[in-house]
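Handout, page 2. Input:
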Amino acid sequence: MPDKKEPEFDVQRQAIIVIHGIGEQRPMDTLRDFVQSIAPPVPLAGNADAHEPPKRKFFNKPDALSETFELRRLTASEHARTFKTDYFEYYWAYKMSGTKLSDIGWWMKEILWRPRRNIPPRIRWIYSFFWSGMVLALLATLTYFADKTLELNWKNNLYTWLASVSPLLPKLLTISKVLLPLVWAVISFFLIYFLGDAVRYMTPRTGNIEQRQDIRQTGIELLTRLHEAKIEVPAPRKTGDSPTPDKPAKRFVNKYDRIILVGHSLGSVIAYDLIKFLWTRQNELLKLTKTQLEAIEDAADKLNTDPTETNRNAYREKQFELWASQYQSLGSWRISDFITLGSPLAHAELLLASSPADLQQKQEEREYPTCPPTPETGKKFTFFSYQTRKTALHHAAPFALTRWTNITFAKDFVGGNIDAFGHGVENHYIAAEAKALNKIPFLSHVAYWNSTEPKTIDLIRSKLQLRINKKSATNVGTNTQVDKD
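Output:
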């Protein structure tokens, strides 16, 4: 018998969900900036010499899928460089309020009391800087109190030392009443503003569980609505055929053929969680053949055995082929790509586990999905599903279909290469073009789609592949690296 005809690759509409990072974000600010930078310009229609005003890059429309009226949907029309694309923002900042300085203090204690070997090498300098500062502060304090003006003889007993120091205490108390509240207020503001959201989301303490659950649940609901959205189209039929109950005139198809998740900063961790939890609702229901599953397992095994760029590119091609084979089906997995920008997942052994060994154990237990997926037995990450009576991908295998691209600036120490999640992650570790961003640590963290960084914008746009076909989909690119010093 001839081989079954491969389904035509024909994306009609796609959705891009942008998930913002830490800080007091306002609804739509992140999405507007992102779309303004990333959406390709619309070419002029008709005569290129005509003095026509440029067309809008996008249209602002109501967002009927999100839970808040503060959000809008930005829609870019189809043209030579993009399919019809709806841009959504998953806005979660308002769900994370009431952060206390004690929350951050507890988290910092947990982090800073770990052995230095358990700190990721990329941010080990911060750990060393903190403890060096503490030692220097202690030495400075001891030196001050040992000044000759105190006539302190270190050979005297403790009572003599206390008697020498006690006259200074009233002055110190007077100064501290003025300075300490001011210093405390400044420190509290910056710690809560920049760290509060991340600390509470990534720390499963009792006081944070409700917020973590709410953020994840709302995100899952948005992705579910995107997956379940349908539109009515004419049903294919032969010329002259009339509609019948068995052959109606119209049929329902998926509204969105393709979904892309873009996570910036903490938003990348949230996006990872959404993929992880949504996958467990669909993994056994996907229409995949045993031959297709064996092909992706073989590509993954080859990459894990010999993690070269060639094998990674080959694995990404197989990922896309597997995704493309099922995306048109009702109930399919629509997330083709996951793009992380300045992602704290680069420090997962610090933030999601107690040590590198602890993270590895959780990945081996398939608590945290990896790319390629962690095998269940041998090289296989599939199993026989008694629910569907066929072979299916296991519960931690979303990255058998979803490609993962990670982009980070060299001086953005919030992010880094995401090596701990598998050889299938395509890392781009690049230098910012703006001199200040490339010299001052952390400053580049908010510049991934800034107009001063056109090369990074082009890179993000190329990885979104806004207009994609089977030929262009295999153009997966290469890891980008710069010197790390």
